[in-house]
Protein backbone atom coordinates (compact mmCIF):
# COMPACT_ATOMS: atom_id res chain seq x y z
CA UNK A 1 0.00 0.00 0.00
CA UNK A 2 1.40 3.46 -0.84
CA UNK A 3 1.94 5.76 2.14
CA UNK A 4 -0.90 8.11 3.05
CA UNK A 5 -0.49 11.72 1.87
CA UNK A 6 0.13 12.82 5.47
CA UNK A 7 3.01 10.35 5.76
CA UNK A 8 4.54 11.59 2.53
CA UNK A 9 4.35 15.14 3.81
CA UNK A 10 5.97 14.16 7.11
CA UNK A 11 8.73 12.30 5.28
CA UNK A 12 9.33 15.30 3.06
CA UNK A 13 9.85 17.44 6.17
CA UNK A 14 12.26 14.86 7.56
CA UNK A 15 14.23 14.97 4.33
CA UNK A 16 14.40 18.78 4.43
CA UNK A 17 15.50 18.71 8.04
CA UNK A 18 18.27 16.23 7.22
CA UNK A 19 19.43 18.35 4.26
CA UNK A 20 19.56 21.36 6.59
CA UNK A 21 21.57 19.44 9.20
CA UNK A 22 24.12 18.34 6.61
CA UNK A 23 24.39 21.90 5.25
CA UNK A 24 24.84 23.39 8.71
CA UNK A 25 27.59 20.91 9.50
CA UNK A 26 29.36 20.40 6.18
CA UNK A 27 28.18 23.16 3.85
CA UNK A 28 27.36 22.72 0.17
CA UNK A 29 30.81 21.18 -0.32
CA UNK A 30 29.72 18.28 1.88
CA UNK A 31 26.14 17.97 0.64
CA UNK A 32 25.77 14.49 -0.85
CA UNK A 33 22.94 11.95 -1.01
CA UNK A 34 25.09 9.70 1.13
CA UNK A 35 25.47 12.36 3.86
CA UNK A 36 21.73 13.13 3.87
CA UNK A 37 20.88 9.41 3.94
CA UNK A 38 23.25 8.92 6.88
CA UNK A 39 21.64 11.84 8.76
CA UNK A 40 18.23 10.16 8.26
CA UNK A 41 19.45 6.63 8.78
CA UNK A 42 17.92 5.53 5.45
CA UNK A 43 19.36 4.17 2.22
CA UNK A 44 20.60 6.45 -0.54
CA UNK A 45 18.19 4.50 -2.77
CA UNK A 46 15.23 5.80 -0.77
CA UNK A 47 16.54 9.36 -1.19
CA UNK A 48 16.80 8.92 -4.97
CA UNK A 49 12.99 9.13 -5.04
CA UNK A 50 13.32 12.71 -3.80
CA UNK A 51 16.55 13.67 -5.54
CA UNK A 52 17.24 11.74 -8.73
CA UNK A 53 20.35 13.88 -9.34
CA UNK A 54 22.91 15.87 -7.35
CA UNK A 55 21.53 18.95 -9.09
CA UNK A 56 18.04 18.25 -7.69
CA UNK A 57 19.51 17.94 -4.20
CA UNK A 58 21.34 21.25 -4.54
CA UNK A 59 18.24 22.97 -5.94
CA UNK A 60 16.22 21.73 -2.96
CA UNK A 61 18.93 22.92 -0.57
CA UNK A 62 18.94 26.40 -2.11
CA UNK A 63 15.13 26.54 -1.98
CA UNK A 64 15.23 25.51 1.64
CA UNK A 65 17.79 28.21 2.44
CA UNK A 66 15.69 30.84 0.68
CA UNK A 67 12.49 29.72 2.43
CA UNK A 68 13.99 29.46 5.90
CA UNK A 69 15.57 32.88 5.50
CA UNK A 70 12.28 34.44 4.36
CA UNK A 71 10.35 32.75 7.16
CA UNK A 72 12.82 33.35 10.00
CA UNK A 73 11.51 35.15 13.08
CA UNK A 74 12.25 38.87 12.94
CA UNK A 75 12.32 41.68 15.42
CA UNK A 76 9.49 44.20 15.54
CA UNK A 77 10.23 47.35 13.52
CA UNK A 78 8.71 50.09 15.61
CA UNK A 79 10.59 53.07 14.21
CA UNK A 80 11.91 54.42 10.95
CA UNK A 81 15.28 55.75 9.81
CA UNK A 82 18.51 54.40 11.32
CA UNK A 83 16.63 52.55 14.07
CA UNK A 84 14.90 50.47 11.40
CA UNK A 85 18.22 49.83 9.63
CA UNK A 86 19.62 48.65 12.97
CA UNK A 87 16.75 46.19 13.46
CA UNK A 88 17.06 44.85 9.91
CA UNK A 89 20.79 44.28 10.30
CA UNK A 90 20.36 42.63 13.71
CA UNK A 91 17.97 40.23 11.95
CA UNK A 92 20.85 39.20 9.67
CA UNK A 93 23.72 38.76 12.15
CA UNK A 94 24.58 35.34 13.63
CA UNK A 95 23.52 36.22 17.18
CA UNK A 96 21.95 32.85 18.06
CA UNK A 97 22.29 29.21 16.97
CA UNK A 98 19.60 29.31 14.25
CA UNK A 99 20.97 32.53 12.77
CA UNK A 100 24.46 31.07 12.90
CA UNK A 101 23.43 27.92 11.01
CA UNK A 102 21.60 29.96 8.39
CA UNK A 103 24.52 32.33 7.86
CA UNK A 104 26.98 29.48 7.74
CA UNK A 105 24.94 27.90 4.94
CA UNK A 106 24.67 31.19 3.05
CA UNK A 107 28.45 31.73 3.20
CA UNK A 108 28.92 28.17 2.03
CA UNK A 109 26.57 28.77 -0.92
CA UNK A 110 28.84 31.52 -2.28
CA UNK A 111 31.41 29.00 -3.53
CA UNK A 112 28.71 27.19 -5.45
CA UNK A 113 27.17 30.43 -6.74
CA UNK A 114 30.46 31.96 -7.92
CA UNK A 115 31.06 28.89 -10.10
CA UNK A 116 27.64 28.93 -11.79
CA UNK A 117 26.46 31.79 -13.96
CA UNK A 118 22.78 31.34 -13.10
CA UNK A 119 23.36 31.01 -9.37
CA UNK A 120 25.72 33.99 -9.41
CA UNK A 121 23.00 36.09 -11.09
CA UNK A 122 20.53 34.91 -8.42
CA UNK A 123 22.94 35.97 -5.69
CA UNK A 124 23.58 39.35 -7.33
CA UNK A 125 19.81 39.88 -7.51
CA UNK A 126 19.48 38.87 -3.86
CA UNK A 127 22.05 41.51 -2.92
CA UNK A 128 20.20 44.10 -4.98
CA UNK A 129 16.95 43.26 -3.15
CA UNK A 130 18.69 43.49 0.22
CA UNK A 131 20.15 46.91 -0.61
CA UNK A 132 16.77 48.03 -1.98
CA UNK A 133 15.06 46.97 1.24
CA UNK A 134 17.47 49.11 3.30
CA UNK A 135 17.50 52.09 0.97
CA UNK A 136 14.15 53.73 1.97
CA UNK A 137 15.21 53.68 5.61
CA UNK A 138 18.40 55.57 4.77
CA UNK A 139 16.26 58.01 2.76
CA UNK A 140 14.09 58.46 5.87
CA UNK A 141 17.19 58.84 8.05
CA UNK A 142 18.39 61.64 5.76
CA UNK A 143 14.97 63.32 5.85
CA UNK A 144 14.92 63.06 9.65
CA UNK A 145 18.34 64.69 9.85
CA UNK A 146 19.90 61.61 11.41
CA UNK A 147 22.84 61.50 9.00
CA UNK A 148 25.84 63.80 8.69
CA UNK A 149 25.76 66.57 6.10
CA UNK A 150 28.40 64.82 3.98
CA UNK A 151 26.57 61.49 4.06
CA UNK A 152 26.80 59.31 0.98
CA UNK A 153 23.74 58.68 -1.20
CA UNK A 154 21.19 56.19 0.19
CA UNK A 155 22.19 53.54 -2.40
CA UNK A 156 25.77 53.67 -1.28
CA UNK A 157 24.87 53.73 2.41
CA UNK A 158 22.78 50.61 1.86
CA UNK A 159 25.68 48.89 0.06
CA UNK A 160 28.05 49.86 2.89
CA UNK A 161 25.66 48.59 5.54
CA UNK A 162 25.34 45.24 3.73
CA UNK A 163 29.12 45.09 3.34
CA UNK A 164 29.73 45.76 7.02
CA UNK A 165 27.10 43.24 8.09
CA UNK A 166 28.16 40.36 5.84
CA UNK A 167 31.84 40.90 6.60
CA UNK A 168 30.98 40.73 10.29
CA UNK A 169 28.98 37.55 9.65
CA UNK A 170 32.04 35.84 8.16
CA UNK A 171 34.41 36.90 10.95
CA UNK A 172 31.88 35.84 13.60
CA UNK A 173 31.32 32.43 11.99
CA UNK A 174 35.04 31.68 12.13
CA UNK A 175 35.58 33.07 15.62
CA UNK A 176 32.35 32.98 17.64
CA UNK A 177 34.26 33.38 20.93
CA UNK A 178 35.74 36.69 19.72
CA UNK A 179 32.37 37.88 18.38
CA UNK A 180 29.61 37.00 20.86
CA UNK A 181 26.23 38.69 20.59
CA UNK A 182 27.19 41.78 22.61
CA UNK A 183 30.33 42.44 20.54
CA UNK A 184 28.47 42.12 17.25
CA UNK A 185 25.75 44.44 18.54
CA UNK A 186 28.27 47.00 19.80
CA UNK A 187 30.08 46.92 16.44
CA UNK A 188 26.81 47.47 14.58
CA UNK A 189 25.93 50.35 16.89
CA UNK A 190 29.34 51.93 16.37
CA UNK A 191 29.03 51.53 12.62
CA UNK A 192 25.63 53.22 12.60
CA UNK A 193 26.80 55.76 15.18
CA UNK A 194 29.62 56.81 12.87
CA UNK A 195 27.03 57.70 10.23
CA UNK A 196 25.10 59.97 12.59
CA UNK A 197 24.93 63.70 12.11
CA UNK A 198 27.50 65.77 13.93
CA UNK A 199 28.56 63.08 16.35
CA UNK A 200 31.55 61.54 14.64
CA UNK A 201 31.79 57.97 15.90
CA UNK A 202 29.35 58.10 18.77
CA UNK A 203 29.57 54.51 19.90
CA UNK A 204 25.96 54.77 21.07
CA UNK A 205 22.92 52.83 20.02
CA UNK A 206 20.35 54.27 17.65
CA UNK B 1 65.97 9.35 -18.65
CA UNK B 2 64.44 11.30 -15.74
CA UNK B 3 63.70 14.97 -16.45
CA UNK B 4 66.38 17.49 -15.51
CA UNK B 5 65.77 19.39 -12.23
CA UNK B 6 65.04 22.57 -14.24
CA UNK B 7 62.29 20.75 -16.14
CA UNK B 8 60.76 19.46 -12.95
CA UNK B 9 60.70 22.97 -11.51
CA UNK B 10 59.07 24.34 -14.69
CA UNK B 11 56.47 21.57 -14.62
CA UNK B 12 55.74 22.30 -10.98
CA UNK B 13 55.02 25.91 -11.89
CA UNK B 14 52.72 24.78 -14.71
CA UNK B 15 50.84 22.59 -12.25
CA UNK B 16 50.43 25.49 -9.81
CA UNK B 17 49.23 27.76 -12.58
CA UNK B 18 46.64 25.19 -13.67
CA UNK B 19 45.44 24.74 -10.08
CA UNK B 20 45.05 28.52 -9.82
CA UNK B 21 43.10 28.69 -13.10
CA UNK B 22 40.69 26.00 -11.94
CA UNK B 23 40.23 27.73 -8.57
CA UNK B 24 39.60 31.11 -10.18
CA UNK B 25 36.99 29.61 -12.48
CA UNK B 26 35.34 26.91 -10.38
CA UNK B 27 36.40 27.49 -6.79
CA UNK B 28 37.33 24.79 -4.30
CA UNK B 29 34.00 23.09 -5.03
CA UNK B 30 35.22 22.44 -8.59
CA UNK B 31 38.83 21.61 -7.76
CA UNK B 32 39.47 18.05 -8.93
CA UNK B 33 42.45 16.24 -10.43
CA UNK B 34 40.39 15.85 -13.59
CA UNK B 35 39.80 19.61 -13.89
CA UNK B 36 43.48 20.44 -13.29
CA UNK B 37 44.56 17.76 -15.79
CA UNK B 38 42.15 19.19 -18.38
CA UNK B 39 43.52 22.71 -17.81
CA UNK B 40 47.05 21.35 -18.47
CA UNK B 41 46.04 18.98 -21.24
CA UNK B 42 47.71 16.06 -19.44
CA UNK B 43 46.43 12.80 -17.96
CA UNK B 44 45.14 12.60 -14.41
CA UNK B 45 47.72 9.81 -13.98
CA UNK B 46 50.52 12.31 -14.53
CA UNK B 47 49.01 14.59 -11.87
CA UNK B 48 48.86 11.75 -9.36
CA UNK B 49 52.64 12.10 -9.05
CA UNK B 50 52.07 15.57 -7.62
CA UNK B 51 48.83 14.95 -5.78
CA UNK B 52 48.33 11.35 -4.69
CA UNK B 53 45.11 12.35 -2.88
CA UNK B 54 42.39 14.98 -3.11
CA UNK B 55 43.62 16.20 0.25
CA UNK B 56 47.10 16.82 -1.17
CA UNK B 57 45.57 18.81 -4.02
CA UNK B 58 43.56 20.95 -1.60
CA UNK B 59 46.59 21.48 0.64
CA UNK B 60 48.60 22.67 -2.36
CA UNK B 61 45.76 24.97 -3.43
CA UNK B 62 45.58 26.54 0.04
CA UNK B 63 49.38 26.99 0.12
CA UNK B 64 49.24 28.62 -3.28
CA UNK B 65 46.50 30.98 -2.13
CA UNK B 66 48.46 31.91 0.98
CA UNK B 67 51.69 32.44 -1.00
CA UNK B 68 50.12 34.45 -3.79
CA UNK B 69 48.34 36.64 -1.26
CA UNK B 70 51.55 37.26 0.70
CA UNK B 71 53.52 38.00 -2.47
CA UNK B 72 50.94 40.16 -4.26
CA UNK B 73 52.05 43.64 -5.33
CA UNK B 74 51.08 46.26 -2.78
CA UNK B 75 50.76 50.01 -2.77
CA UNK B 76 53.43 52.15 -1.11
CA UNK B 77 52.53 53.11 2.47
CA UNK B 78 53.80 56.63 2.78
CA UNK B 79 51.79 57.82 5.77
CA UNK B 80 50.47 56.58 9.07
CA UNK B 81 47.05 56.58 10.70
CA UNK B 82 43.89 56.36 8.60
CA UNK B 83 45.81 56.94 5.35
CA UNK B 84 47.72 53.72 6.02
CA UNK B 85 44.51 51.86 6.84
CA UNK B 86 43.11 53.10 3.52
CA UNK B 87 46.11 51.79 1.59
CA UNK B 88 45.98 48.40 3.35
CA UNK B 89 42.28 48.00 2.60
CA UNK B 90 42.72 49.06 -1.05
CA UNK B 91 45.31 46.25 -1.27
CA UNK B 92 42.56 43.79 -0.31
CA UNK B 93 39.67 44.92 -2.53
CA UNK B 94 38.98 43.30 -5.93
CA UNK B 95 39.91 46.39 -7.97
CA UNK B 96 41.65 44.56 -10.82
CA UNK B 97 41.58 41.08 -12.44
CA UNK B 98 44.32 39.53 -10.27
CA UNK B 99 42.79 40.86 -7.06
CA UNK B 100 39.40 39.64 -8.21
CA UNK B 101 40.67 36.11 -8.86
CA UNK B 102 42.43 35.99 -5.50
CA UNK B 103 39.37 37.23 -3.61
CA UNK B 104 37.10 34.86 -5.47
CA UNK B 105 39.31 31.97 -4.37
CA UNK B 106 39.42 33.18 -0.76
CA UNK B 107 35.63 33.44 -0.60
CA UNK B 108 35.40 29.98 -2.11
CA UNK B 109 37.77 28.63 0.55
CA UNK B 110 35.37 29.63 3.34
CA UNK B 111 33.00 26.76 2.52
CA UNK B 112 35.86 24.31 2.84
CA UNK B 113 37.21 25.98 5.98
CA UNK B 114 33.86 26.11 7.80
CA UNK B 115 33.52 22.33 7.37
CA UNK B 116 36.97 21.46 8.76
CA UNK B 117 38.00 22.21 12.31
CA UNK B 118 41.69 22.70 11.46
CA UNK B 119 41.05 24.89 8.43
CA UNK B 120 38.50 26.93 10.40
CA UNK B 121 41.11 27.56 13.10
CA UNK B 122 43.60 28.60 10.39
CA UNK B 123 41.06 31.05 8.99
CA UNK B 124 40.23 32.45 12.43
CA UNK B 125 43.98 32.96 13.02
CA UNK B 126 44.29 34.64 9.61
CA UNK B 127 41.53 37.07 10.61
CA UNK B 128 43.25 37.76 13.91
CA UNK B 129 46.50 38.56 12.07
CA UNK B 130 44.68 40.84 9.66
CA UNK B 131 43.03 42.75 12.51
CA UNK B 132 46.36 42.90 14.37
CA UNK B 133 48.06 44.36 11.29
CA UNK B 134 45.46 47.16 11.12
CA UNK B 135 45.30 47.85 14.84
CA UNK B 136 48.51 49.94 15.25
CA UNK B 137 47.36 52.27 12.49
CA UNK B 138 44.09 52.90 14.29
CA UNK B 139 46.12 53.53 17.45
CA UNK B 140 48.16 56.06 15.48
CA UNK B 141 44.98 57.58 14.03
CA UNK B 142 43.67 58.06 17.57
CA UNK B 143 46.97 59.61 18.70
CA UNK B 144 46.94 61.94 15.69
CA UNK B 145 43.42 63.08 16.53
CA UNK B 146 42.02 61.69 13.29
CA UNK B 147 39.17 59.82 14.96
CA UNK B 148 36.03 61.15 16.64
CA UNK B 149 35.98 61.50 20.42
CA UNK B 150 33.52 58.63 20.78
CA UNK B 151 35.55 56.31 18.53
CA UNK B 152 35.55 52.63 19.39
CA UNK B 153 38.70 50.92 20.68
CA UNK B 154 41.35 50.14 18.04
CA UNK B 155 40.61 46.39 18.20
CA UNK B 156 37.00 47.01 17.37
CA UNK B 157 37.81 49.55 14.67
CA UNK B 158 40.10 46.98 13.05
CA UNK B 159 37.37 44.33 13.19
CA UNK B 160 34.87 46.76 11.66
CA UNK B 161 37.27 47.74 8.88
CA UNK B 162 37.85 44.07 8.03
CA UNK B 163 34.10 43.45 8.13
CA UNK B 164 33.35 46.35 5.82
CA UNK B 165 36.11 45.34 3.40
CA UNK B 166 35.30 41.64 3.16
CA UNK B 167 31.57 42.31 2.84
CA UNK B 168 32.34 44.69 0.01
CA UNK B 169 34.56 42.03 -1.58
CA UNK B 170 31.66 39.58 -1.67
CA UNK B 171 29.14 42.05 -3.11
CA UNK B 172 31.67 43.19 -5.75
CA UNK B 173 32.48 39.62 -6.78
CA UNK B 174 28.83 38.90 -7.47
CA UNK B 175 28.12 42.22 -9.17
CA UNK B 176 31.29 43.71 -10.68
CA UNK B 177 29.28 46.05 -12.92
CA UNK B 178 27.62 47.61 -9.85
CA UNK B 179 30.95 47.84 -7.98
CA UNK B 180 33.69 49.01 -10.34
CA UNK B 181 36.96 50.32 -8.93
CA UNK B 182 35.75 53.91 -8.41
CA UNK B 183 32.63 52.81 -6.52
CA UNK B 184 34.59 50.51 -4.22
CA UNK B 185 37.12 53.27 -3.57
CA UNK B 186 34.40 55.85 -2.87
CA UNK B 187 32.70 53.44 -0.48
CA UNK B 188 35.97 52.83 1.36
CA UNK B 189 36.60 56.58 1.58
CA UNK B 190 33.11 57.17 2.93
CA UNK B 191 33.56 54.40 5.47
CA UNK B 192 36.83 55.89 6.69
CA UNK B 193 35.44 59.40 6.42
CA UNK B 194 32.61 58.47 8.77
CA UNK B 195 35.20 57.56 11.42
CA UNK B 196 36.91 60.94 11.20
CA UNK B 197 36.83 63.39 14.07
CA UNK B 198 34.03 65.93 14.07
CA UNK B 199 33.05 65.46 10.45
CA UNK B 200 30.25 62.93 10.69
CA UNK B 201 30.17 61.14 7.35
CA UNK B 202 32.49 63.35 5.35
CA UNK B 203 32.51 61.42 2.11
CA UNK B 204 36.06 62.65 1.53
CA UNK B 205 39.26 60.69 1.07
CA UNK B 206 41.78 60.33 3.86
CATH superfamily of the largest domain in chain A: Tetracycline Repressor, domain 2
**How many structurally independent domains of chain A?**
2
Biggest β-sheet of chain A: count, sense, barrel?
none
Percentage of β-strand residues of chain A: under 5%
Largest interface: A-B, 61 and 62 residues
What does this structure look like?
Chains A, B: InterPro entries: BetI_C, Homeodomain-like_sf, HTH-type_TetR-like_transc_reg, HTH_TetR, Tet_transcr_reg_TetR-rel_C_sf. Chains A, B: Residues 32-51 bind DNA. Chains A, B: Pfam families: TetR_C_6, TetR_N. 2 copies of one chain form a homodimer. Chain A contains 9 helices and no strands. Chain A has 206 residues and is mainly α. The first copy, chain A, has 2 domains: 5-69, Homeodomain-like (Arc Repressor Mutant, subunit A, Orthogonal Bundle), CATH 1.10.10.60; 73-195, Tetracycline Repressor, domain 2 (Orthogonal Bundle). Chain A is elongated. The termini of chain A are far apart. Mean pLDDT of chain A is 92; it is low at 199-206.
Amino acid sequence: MPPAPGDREARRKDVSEAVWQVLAEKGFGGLTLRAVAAAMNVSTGMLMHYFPTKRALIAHALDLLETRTAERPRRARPAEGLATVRTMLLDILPLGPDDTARNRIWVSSWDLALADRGLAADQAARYTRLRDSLRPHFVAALARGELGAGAAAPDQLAASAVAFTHGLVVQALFDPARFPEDVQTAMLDDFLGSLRAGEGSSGGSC
